[in-house]
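Field reference: sequence -> structure
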Amino acid sequence: MPNSSARSIIETRLSAEAPAKLNLFFEVLSKRHDNYHEIVSIAVPIQLFDTLTFEPTDGSTIQFECKSVGLTLSDTDIPLDDTNLAVRATKLLQERLPHERLFQERGAYAPRYGAKITLSKRIPSQAGLGGGSSDAVAALRLARQGWNLDISDAELLSIAAEVGSDCPIFFYDVPTISRGRGEQIQPLPPMSPLWFVLLKPPEGLSTACVYTECMPLHDGHFRQPDDLIAALSNGNVREIGRNLFNRLEVPAQKLWHRFGEVKNLLLAAGCLAVQMSGSGTAFFGLCENEAHAKETFQRLHSVSGQGNKSFLARSMA
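Structure field:
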């Protein structure tokens, strides 16, 4: 990694938005020897954002706090220690920097790569929306800017892939197809905007548990994303809806008794197609256009029930 110790730190408060994602396609191909799973996924970023602020500080401490914006969060929903992906990513970047971490200010020497990070949380956790992974990528980019580091996106992406398999997709603001354990990313061509209604129930699912149940329940018929890619390319919304697929729905349905109930709320509200995102428990409903999405959102919001959280979102592409 390039030596950045000679560059001056930027004394400023920076901020960035971290988008959520939806998995329009998710197939699990096999269990790998490294205990990850071989997957094929098509993800699209959506206009539902967390916001991170980053303030460079003297010393080497990473201070982190989280503020809920429109969510009901318990103390255990968002970890504030090294298990938080934004904190983990920032500390991993610290470890990769040169050892000459001293700079002179007001005649005294002090360690130079510390930070205060504040997360304004709008993306629900344990939802399959990638909020934690997106926060990690935003933190890496802010740290590069705030610490004035000469580090490429490729180097940051390598660090992000160590933090989590979902992280690399958030280096792109267009739909992506992911392979391997999720680290092999190919951006897809920009597409027409898609409109979605999201529903997040209060329950969460353990990603590890969902994956553990996946292969034993697999039907052995491995889906390919070609038809969905073609539908995305020509902007045929109904064809996109017909080709949505998520292999993780099968184990999630086994582990969570309200799976069908929550999915049916979106179908009853009038969505063209409904699918769980990632390992859940958020569902998204695909809508015909903006007007249809707003009408559907209003119907869903009135009947979704206490504890459920609904969102209206458009794709970023």
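Note: Residues 1-10, 99-110 have pLDDT under 50 and may be disordered.
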